[in-house]
Write the structure tokens for this entry.
Amino acid sequence: MADCIFCKIAAGEIPSNKAYEDDKVLAFYDLDPQAPTHILVIPKEHIKSAAEIDETNSALIAHVFEVAAKLAKELGLDNGFRVVTNCGESAGQSVHHIHFHLLGGRDFTWPPG
Ligand code: 5GP
Ligand code: ZN
């Protein structure tokens, strides 16, 4: 996707502070952290949002969650953490390349705002 900022980050065309990378997934620190640990985990392939998860890409999304769990362990988020994906306008999705916020290092309220 030519105009997608996260495709550019995945391709290394825009720099990011990386937490994990393999051939399919990249994790990098959010520019505007909402918790002491705030990492975005993305598939390198362009998928617009959680509304586009289907049988053709669900294994890739499962891999994203494996990476999130591995990072949470490595970063010592033993007290708990949150994985969030905002999907669509009402949820406040601002970048239209699916991403999972891995948030930790503080307590979170429920329900979310
Ligand atoms: P959303 O609002 O779509 O759920 O989340 C988008 C997230 O991407 C926001 O938390 C925002 O701070 C982060 N973000 C937007 N542009 C960049 C960027 O260029 N680099 C990094 N590291 N984070 C970004
Ligand atoms: Zn993209």
